[in-house]
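Field notebook, page 737. I keep forgetting to write these up properly, so this time I am using the form the group agreed on. The chain and the ligand, adenosine-5'-diphosphate, are recorded exactly as supplied. Prediction of the bound pose follows.
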Amino acid sequence: MTHHPPIPVYPIGHQSPQQVLKTVFGYDEFRPLQPEIIDNIRKRRDTLVIMPTGGGKSLCYQLPALFFDGLTVVVSPLISLMQDQVTQLQQIGVAAVFINSTLDHDEYVSTVDWLGTGEVKLLYLAPESLLRPETLRLLDDCRVDCLAIDEAHCISQWGHDFRPEYRQLDSVRKRFPQAVCVALTATATPRVQTDIRQTLGFRNENEFIASFDRSNLFIAVEPKTNLLRQTLDFLAAHPDQSGIIYCATRRQVDWLHQALVEHGFSALPYHAGLDDETRRNNQQAFIRDDVRCMVATIAFGMGIDKPDVRFVLHADLPQNVESYYQEIGRAGRDGLRADCLLLFSYGDVDTIQYFIRQGAASESQGRRERLKAMVDWATSGECRRSELLAYFGEAFPSENCRACDNCLKKEEEQVDLTLPAQKFLSCVVRTDQVFGISHIIDVLRGSRAIKVMRQRHDRLSTYGIGKEFSAEQWKLLAQQFIQQKLLARHMKHGSVKLTRAGWAVLRGKKVSGTPVETGGKASGHGVPSDETAAYDHQFFEQLRTKRKELADTANVPPYVIFSDRSLQEMATYFPHSETTLERLHGIGRAKVERYAGIFLPIIAAYCREKGLAENPKSSPRSTSASKSLKSRSQEVGERFRTGESLTQLMQAYGVKRQTLISYLERYVQSGEVLPVERFRAESRLSSETQDQVLAAFDELGPDFLRPVFDALDKSVGYDELHLLRIIYRLQAQGGEG
Ligand code: ADP
Ligand code: ZN
């Protein structure tokens, strides 16, 4: 029987890893640690890789695989994932195959045949398939150069996903002693790491631990005041985007899914109560972009490798920080911005505590502690990112991450909340500090609820003194008071008590915070709306439709054809030739050969219709390894320094003016100096007005913009204030003005 390789395969010739990254994978730069790891594997040193979900682990063994003469065997526990990866690799012209129970006899035979030719670079296997004698004999006849063990925490009994077959991988190593071994996981606990190292016989010096920060995730927490309305608002802010809504129970999933569908949203449910086929179909529909949003219990997510999940909404509180981080980690694997919102309620805390009490007594203390850490995190007023990283033992280097609700709030307007705080706190005191927030709010709003009447709280001086705020607004205020540690909430009973800082407020100490507008929408601090990047949205949609059509014909997920980012760049640079098309993110040689003939004419037609010209993306200027370690703000700062204008930079990065200004602001705050005159020239204000703003900063200080905004009678927008604040800081640094 003859066989044909199912795909065209491109030899890499004498290219460097950096070149292969572009020509095969279509990426300009390595992510942090990727170059070091790849180098280490190519030198045949065993390697342990710890990287967060979405960090780019796969590339660490896929790229070296292309340099080895022999085969790289990849052990992966999830069948759907391995199929997905093999499809993606074949799309970019890499000879990759898998062997698992889904292959029929003919497919198996042709796979084995192809392996026999020695052309195949990557073979994906589930551990149980690998351990079968016929597979091992098959591999004896191949030259195995590398053994990559994905999800390596499955080796450890201490991990959350122990798989006994993983323990036997050690014997496979011994059978192929010439093969270098790389183990990869996103699990950060030292105990699991030690277990992996010991089981596989690794040495320390070959260990690479990446930062767990996922800087493209915007993280926010809001009190859960009205689940359905908050969910609808959130979805409305993310039209046409893929996302996951996590609920704690099947009941909640069914209810919320039903409600969303009734409101016209494209959603499907997923939980363990649905039969296998329904679950498979729903998951497939999500991966193929046939449905936008998945309403799911945490049963959903393992084995989902969809790179363009744009949001994760937690409708209920996760039980611990580990689960939470893993769940939001499924968003934004493609590195584009993704929004994570958690709706927090103390009712959920009580529910989880109930479940902990029902569970095994031996586990209850640990679970309670982890729950407490989750609650502390959710109710904290500090940077979400730095607290998450601290939980995983990592220090976040910057004071303001600019990508969490608390950090953004620091930059927002602050208002005086002393009066509402005094009302709330004194009501807590009058009711003897033994009630929860809802009861306090009932009293403040003059409710005739049975509990209020029975306690005779309608006779208190604080009864009905808080009618100016709705119950929802009071919840938002109470949340701030807890965040500011004016109140402490009892974990078990839910009652609130004044702290020392709280008593100080009753004695007249001022409180400020973010406003809860009367009337309008209650939430003042949700996730900021999606940054309207400067690509042509209408054209992006058109490209997306084409992509979907091709994907359905080929029976693959759309992101396997092109990522969102590739399409967005097409709708920014409008490439007219194969050369300029290949410069775009995620586009290597194979994609050009496959799809240039389809996409270039579409782009050309659109440009003709709209009278647009090509706006070629510049090829990456420097390819030094240090460049990939540079932050975006440094990059922008340096390009601005060399004379590029804000408008040019807006085009280059496809971001709003405000975003650029914040990059520059960060650059200057890190101690860099840029010419003041450049900023003055970029300002849209007259030079007199600029001087007025600078004088206001002088008088009021640069830390908060709101007072300056007010002092100028709200006549100067925040964009300009940010820009002028840079000038102010530069002048302060330089000692002039
Ligand atoms: P992990 O296995 O660590 O969760 P993946 O290997 O699936 O993450 O990578 C996540 C996404 O990042 C994938 O879509 C991958 O193609 C992409 N990616 C990996 N490395 C790079 C890079 N250097 N530049 C751009 N994208 C990358
Ligand atoms: Zn932050």
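OBSERVATIONS:
- The domain at 632-732 is CATH 1.10.10 (Arc Repressor Mutant, subunit A).
- Residues 589-610 form the longest helix (22 residues).
FOLLOW-UP: compare against the apo run.
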